[in-house]
Structures are given as C-alpha cells and as structure tokens.
TrEMBL record, chains A, B:
Name by which UniProt lists this protein: Gamma-glutamyl phosphate reductase
Originating species: Thermus brevis
Record Gene3D superfamilies: Aldehyde Dehydrogenase, Chain A, domain 1, Aldehyde Dehydrogenase, Chain A, domain 2
Its job: Catalyzes the NADPH-dependent reduction of L-glutamate 5-phosphate into L-glutamate 5-semialdehyde and phosphate. The product spontaneously undergoes cyclization to form 1-pyrroline-5-carboxylate.
Gene that specifies this protein: proA
UniProt domain Aldehyde dehydrogenase: residue ranges: 52-289
Family assignment from sequence similarity: Belongs to the gamma-glutamyl phosphate reductase family.
C-alpha cells in the first residue's frame, strides 16, 4: 500500500466520490423501478452473452497463471458452465421472492391522533469489497438490487476483466428494465488503495467486506462507515450426556466433512465425560475412514488411538480442513464456558434428548445460529429460508447471521398527521 | 489528549478490559434476571438517597464553578428536585413496559422439518460516552438494562462525583434485585484518553456517543466497534402549494419555538412559489412576535420586511436558536432536491392537502422520521410510542430514529432439529 502518488490518490478519491454521488442521486428511481425485471433480464443476458464473459475470464486466468497464482486461487477465479446455471437460477429465484420494500409496519394511532409506523426502505448505497470469485459480481448485486440498493463494487485484482464484463451485462439489464445504470458500478482500478478509499467514502450507507481474515480486519480497522462483516467460523458441537450418540456421530460427520472449507463447517466437538468412553472411539473410527485428523485434549487422548494433542493456542482456530478438535467436558456448564471463550459467534450446536439442557444452550450461547440436534452446515441464507444471501454477519448490530434481501433494508419512521403540534 | 504516559495508558486499557470482561461474563444472568425489579429498586433508592446524590452534585458544581464553566453548562450539570421526579417516573414507566426479550419470532418449518426462527436477545455490552448531564446516568442505563444489556459508562469529567453516586445507587438496586453489579460500571477516571480507549475496546457490542458534534465525530473516526450516533438535526418544513396555510404556520411556530435548542427543532421552511406571497408575510409576523430572526433566499427577501440574506454556507447549519431560514422553491421537486442536499437525515415534514404530493414526500425523503401535516418536534421515543429513548440515530443501520429498549436488542437464529444433516 501507499504505492500511489498523492495526485493519483486524489484522482481515485474523486472518481469514487463521483460514482457514489451519481448512485445516490438515482436511489429513489431504483427503489421505485422494475428491479425484478432487471434481475430477469440479467439472467437472460448471461445466457446470451456467456461466451463474452468467458473470453474476459480467460484473459484474467492467463494473466493470473503467468503471475503464478496458486491452483486453488485459479480454480476460484475460473468461470465454468455450471456457474452459468447456478447464477441464472439464483437470479430467477431472487426475482420470484416477495418485494421487501414499501410496507409500513406497525402503523398505529398515538393518543393525539398522529398515525405513526415504520416504512421498509433500502439501506441506500452499499460498498462491496470482495476477492477472486467473479460469480459474486452477479450474486451480491442481485441481493442488493432486490432490496432497492445501489452498489459500488471493488472486486479482486485478478478478476478485473471478468468483473468488467459482468458489470457491463448488469448495465444492459438495468437499461432494459428502465433502471439507471448508476445502480451498479465497478471501481475502475485494480489498485489496492481503492480498498482504503472505500473505507473512507462517507457517502456509503454500508460497507460489506467478503474474503480472508486479513481483508476483513483491514476494513474493520480503517472504515469510517458502518461495516457488516463475518469473522471466521470456529463452530462447536456439544455432545451431551443425554445425546443420541448415533445422531451425534452423524451430525459431527456432516458438520466436518460435507464441505470442510466453508465457514459453517464444524471445527471442534465437546463431549460430556459420561459418554466420552463410548462416543470417542465411534468418532475416531468414522473420522479415520473419512481422512479426518483428530486433535485432542488431555482427557480425550487416552480414549483415542491416533489423535495428537491439541495445542492451547489452537482452540480458537478455524482449520477449514479435514482436522477436528476433541475435548472432554464435565458437563453443559463447561461446554458453555468453552464456547464463550473460544467460539467466534458464528454457529454452535448441541446434541441432546434433554429439552432443559437444549433450551439453556439455545438461550445462553451467543452465536448467529444456535442449533439443537442439527448440523452446523445449516447456517446459510437458503437453508434458513431467506432465498439468497450476501454473507453471514457475526456482528450483532442490524443483522446477526445470513444477510438476505430483507437484511439489506432498514425502516424509517413515517407520521401521518392532521396538523398535530407538540405540547 | 496524549497527556497520559504510556504506563498510565496501559493501566487504563487494562482497567477497561477487566470491567468489560467482568460484565460479559455475567450477561446470561442479566438477561435471565429480574431487570424490572432493579429498575423499581432504583426508583425507590433515588427517592431515599437523593440527599447523597445532591451532595455529590454540589461538589461537582463547586469545582466546575471554580473552573469557570459557562452558565449554560453549570445549569445542565445541576440536579434539581424536578429531576428526581422525572427520573423516578421514567424508571417506573420503563419497568412497566413489556419485556423485549425471550420471544422467538417467525418460527417456521423448513422442507426438511427443521424449525427455524429468530430469538430476541440483548445486544450485550454497550459503551455509553456522554457529556455533562448526570441524569443520563439513570436514563440511559434504564433503557439498556430493560433490554438485558450491560453498560460501561464514560460520563463528563465535570459530573464525575454525581455519576459515581448514581452508579453506586445502581449497584445497590442491582443487588436488591439479585442481579450482578457488573451490569453497570463507570470508567473510574476523568481522563479524556478514556474516550479513545473505549473506541478501541473490542469487547463492546455497541458504542453510543451522546453529546456535541465534536465528540460524535471523534468517536465515529476512532471507533473499532459498531457505533450508533446522531448527527445534527437540520430539519425542514415544506409548505406545498396545496397546504392549509394556517396549519403550516402553526407547524412552523411549533417546530421552531416550542423548544429551539433540541435536535428535532425546525431550522428551515421551504415555501412553494405559488403561496409564498401570502404565506411569507404571515410567517414573518408570527416569528417577529416570538423573537425569531429570519434568514432568506433571494426570492424570499422581497416578500419579507426585516429578513437578512441567508449565506450559501449556512443552508446546512443547525442553529438550535431562534433563527429560521426561509427559501422559496418552484415546487415539490426542488424541495426534495434541497432536502437531499442540505438535510441531515433527521426529521423532515411536508404540509399539504394533496395526498399525492404527501406520499411522494413520505416515500422519497431519506430521514429517520418523515411527517405529513405534523410538527418535526414529534421525533422522540416517547412521542412515537417507544416508552423511552437513549438517543436518536441518524445512521440507517440497525436503528434509524429514536432508540428505545427494543432498538437495544438484536435477534439470533435458533434451529430446532431432529438430527437433520445438510445434503
């Protein structure tokens, strides 16, 4: 960072300000316009112009390969035909969702006859900072636009041409639906400085960073505007003394192995000491068959054949890999304490047949989703019924959990009077 | 600032961290405990121990007087017997409000049988930074505690002894109700450095600054945690061509003069050019009788006898005084543009008998409260039916408008399963 000369920095800040002002001026039109029409047009245009998009993506890939990007990163950068299907399906699903805007909630009459209520409105202009995957250029915009917001995008440097191609399709879709193209803009530079400039752009109503821990921390540290971000998912399953152990095993397997590299995957199992002797060998066998390495606390180690000791400093780690921590606890109390200390407020689960233990867990654990007898993998906008999501917030303000179209709205108060004055 | 030595700064940070950790550890008990009991005990203790509080307040006043504090500031610092009545009434009213916590909203069954919903929970630990008025030590805590939150207070330097006395009463009230005293803490130093330390205290779920523009801006610039703050209230009344001009006059008088020094007072009137010739002389006469100075745009000036020209740079100013800006506009369109440019998203009103103009105004104006035929003075938690408030947010995230107990809660997702795994 700090690579730009002062004059270039000024130019960048001016460009962002102009894009933001242009978008803000059109917000009422966007809220009133045919937003679902734009989503459907985008689905059709993606199908028609997919070769153009792929061509831009190929150029990005070529350059990224030459720059020596890792295999995993190249894989995330590459658009495939199955992406076309999932993107167009997503757009059509979101277009079919009910409109989150326009309702007046709780309209009620005050003693002086003034009618007051809350009108559901867009947040306004949302900044979105993301990393390599170009599909997000379609998905994130579709959720924001459904809720009547404008969006200023700053995608990963490697995906710049792909993102340009997709944003130019968005502009065609917006025009077809009679909406202003200012609703979607791509920051027209790949300089990293643009991230800092967005953090300081006070014309944004909200800034959403999506990517690695380093990016999220940078944005949280530098932002002068409200931020919704997700921290890592250090997610636990507590196997209670009254758990159905077969169910607990299935939940552990599903949580850890169904898709290990995502934020709602399971990272640690806490086992009640009264069932540890039976459960831990079951868990070890199942995990070994699936190539999962176990790292265990001192009490669990003697009950496991191949586990290695877990280091103190790794109890709050998110592996995103086939590694699972195991800890024996004296009961619900110790499980709650452990989660409060090492959890990341993302997703926490209990497996038990005891409703009293379950409700205490559900009520006391502070996490965006708390589950009873279900897999941590359900912390997802589609799974919880939001229809779509732009990320999972682990900050409690505004939206705690997956953020769908409704989470990208707010309410303002409206008051309908007949000349009321304050006494 | 920067007056503290590094070792003192470290000590301050450590103290804050310990207070915050102490509070966080007791959050489940606070949420489950007899919060209304603590509010009622506080009301009774205030009545019993009022002389103690006044004694501490006298000491604060004496020191402040010696330090040469302005008359207005001394007045805000001084506790009077009418404060006792309003504080105890407020506590009893808030205790009587329904409990915002514990409900599970929208519990519904997903296709796989998983039952999901949102459980209403406290935000957690709230930092509150405020200036001289010691009554806020009672009011703000009562709103936060009603919603199950713990609070870390940093009051004004001048009110330190008063705040200490009030917090020690809170501790007695909490103990009487069986709640942990960690629910309410006062930062035990008057150093300004404590503000910065709170801005960086990542154990806070929310930081609320309440005071002058300078304090708010400092906190917004420095905070590493979510902030809910209110900007100034640059509030307009648009008098439409189809306004009932007598009503418009009453609303202008009420907005400007009923309590000029508060954030929901009126600062500017926009008048449709077709009614300006009739309305402006009415307005001038009424305002002159009430000692209000008019500052006018070039089109309004010839229609007014004593108004002075409004300077370009004052159109976004909050006078908090008996001064009113007047501007003639060509119609609704220009009024909307003017408000979008100079308004502060606080409170905006239209006076008209034309529902079409009214609804366009209600829908398009971006402000925490938009009124039709009613005074801007209604932007207030009690007036809108929240029962209490801790301030008025002009940021759109989480709470846009007055913040009552419900606005100091959030929801987490809960999922009740029977062993569901993700496919």
């Amino acid at each position: 960072m700090g690579e730009l000369a002062a004059s270039q920095k000024e130019h960048l800040e001016k460009t962002l300000r102009e894009l933001a002002e242009g978008a803000r001026a059109r917000l009422p039109e966007i809220a009133k316009g045919n937003r679902d029409g734009a989503l459907l047009a985008m689905a059709r245009l993606l199908e028609e112009a997919w070769p153009e998009v792929l061509k831009a993506n190929q150029e990005d890939l070529k350059e990224a390969e030459e720059a020596g990007l890792s295999r995993a990163k190249l894989d995330r950068l590459a658009l495939k035909d199955k992406d076309l299907r999932s993107l167009t399906e997503g757009l059509r699903q979101i277009a079919a969702l009910p409109d989150p805007l326009g309702r007046i909630e709780g309209l009620s009459k005050r003693p002086n006859g003034l009618r007051v209520g809350r009108m559901r409105i867009p947040l306004g202009l949302i900044g979105f900072i993301y990393e390599a995957r170009p599909g997000a250029t379609v998905e994130a915009v579709s959720v924001a636009l459904k809720a009547g917001n404008a969006m200023l995008l700053r995608g990963g440097k490697e995906a710049f041409r792909s993102n340009q191609a997709l944003v130019s399709l968005w502009h065609r879709a917006l025009r077809e639906a009679g909406l202003p193209v200012e609703a979607v803009s791509l920051v027209p530079t790949t300089e990293r400085e643009a991230i800092l400039a967005m953090c300081r752009l006070e014309l944004l109503d909200l800034l959403i960073p999506r990517g690695g821990e380093e990016l999220i921390r940078l944005v949280q540290r530098e932002a002068r505007v409200p931020v919704l971000a997700h921290a890592k998912g250090v997610n636990h399953l507590y196997v209670d003394e009254r758990a159905d152990l077969d169910m607990a095993l299935r939940l552990a397997i599903n949580g850890k192995t169904q898709r290990p590299a995502v934020c709602n995957a399971l990272e640690a199992v806490l086992v009640h000491e009264r069932v540890a002797e039976v459960f831990l060998p079951m868990l070890e066998k199942a995990m070994r068959e699936r190539g999962v390495e176990l790292r265990a606390c001192p009490k669990a180690l003697p009950l496991l054949k191949e586990a290695v000791p877990a280091q103190e400093e790794e109890w709050d780690r998110e592996y995103l890999d086939l590694i699972l921590r195991v800890k024996v606890v004296s009961g619900l109390e110790e499980a709650l304490e452990h989660i409060a200390r090492y959890g990341s407020r993302h997703t926490e689960a209990i497996c038990t047949e005891d409703p009293k233990a379950a409700w205490r867990f559900l009520e006391e654990v502070d996490a965006s989703l708390v589950l009873w007898n279900a897999s941590t993998r359900f912390n997802d906008g589609f799974q919880l019924g939001l229809g779509a999501e732009i990320g999972i917030s682990t900050s409690k303000l505004h939206a705690y959990g997956p953020m769908g179209p409704m989470e990208l709205t707010t309410t303002k108060w409206v008051a309908l009077g007949e000349g009321q004055e304050r006494e």
